[in-house]
Design goal:
Number of strands: 3
Helix content: 40-55%
Length: about 100
C-alpha cells in the first residue's frame, strides 16, 4: 500500500548493512518514528482516510530521503529509516527534515 519496504525486508537489509558497516568501520544510523495521534485519525475519519495519511507520509519520506536509504513501514503507523554512511549528527539533520 505504501510502496515502502515491510518489516521483514527491512530487518534483512539491516543485517546486511550492519555487517558491512562493522566490517569497514563505517557509520550507520537507524531512525524510528511514528505518526502522532494516528488512532484518532482512523477513529474520526475512518480507515480509508487513515490509509491516505499513511500513503502521504510514505511519499514524503521517499521524497526527502536519499536513494540508498532504506525506508520501511515498521508497524501500523511506525516508520523506520536505515541511513548507511550516516553519523548521528547527519542523522539528526535527516530527522529534523
Amino acid at each position: 500500500m505504501t510502496g515502502l519496504h515491510n518489516r521483514r525486508s527491512f530487518e534483512e537489509r539491516v543485517e546486511k548493512e550492519c555487517k558491512r558497516a562493522l566490517g569497514y568501520s563505517r557509520p550507520l544510523t537507524v531512525l524510528l518514528g511514528d505518526i502522532d495521534h494516528f488512532k484518532q485519525v482512523n477513529d474520526r475519519y475512518g480507515h480509508a482516510q487513515g490509509d491516505i495519511v499513511l500513503k502521504r507520509v510514505s511519499q514524503t519520506l521517499i521524497d526527502t530521503c536519499r536513494t540508498n536509504d532504506t525506508i520501511a513501514r515498521y508497524g501500523g503507523e511506525e516508520f523506520v529509516i536505515l541511513l548507511p554512511e550516516t553519523d548521528p549528527d547527519e542523522a539528526q539533520v535527516v530527522a529534523d527534515r
